[in-house]
Description:
The chain is mainly beta. It has 2 domains: 2-50, no CATH class; 65-187, Cathepsin D, subunit A, domain 1 (Beta Barrel). The protein is built from 3 helices and 16 strands.
Amino acid sequence: MFKVLMMLPFFAMPMIGHAELYKIINEFGDIIYTDTAPSIDAKEHKLNAIYTIKNPAFNINKIDSMIPYKDKSGSMIVEGSVHGVPMRFIVDTGATYVTIPPAIAKRAGLYDLKFKTIEVQTANGKVEVPRVRLKNISIGKMNQSRVRATIQTISEDNPNLGLLGMSFLDEYKVTVHQNKKAIELAPK
């Protein structure tokens, strides 16, 4: 009985753990945090040890990304890519879908994908446009796959300009920092 009582404090004390944490950036630019040493080809960064889940310097559920934007006549323009092809987007929370201009769609191989034609409402009325699922779209450090998009011309003056609509933005809490000219995308 005495031995059991002597060992009780050891079981009652909280365990202090020590873990190595790795930040991995894969070939698509995706950031992955893991406690397992990577065995794949990736840029590897060893971070400081984490002693507790409540460490404010690390919160796996809140990996934010600040996306710089340019203000063009009241529109926020961000840089991104579709299937690895760079392009610029107008951030448009009123647009249901991401919209890719035909010139970019051709370079990105979107016409090779299976697609449906849908009717959309534009400022110039209703039009029929191809709708596809993007294999990869990147805005800053944020990457998504299987995002619905339409293929249509947004600006005759700028054939490489598209719309960043809710089919991408709906995955994030979006905050605009006008003083920093940046949009913060935080996972919901």
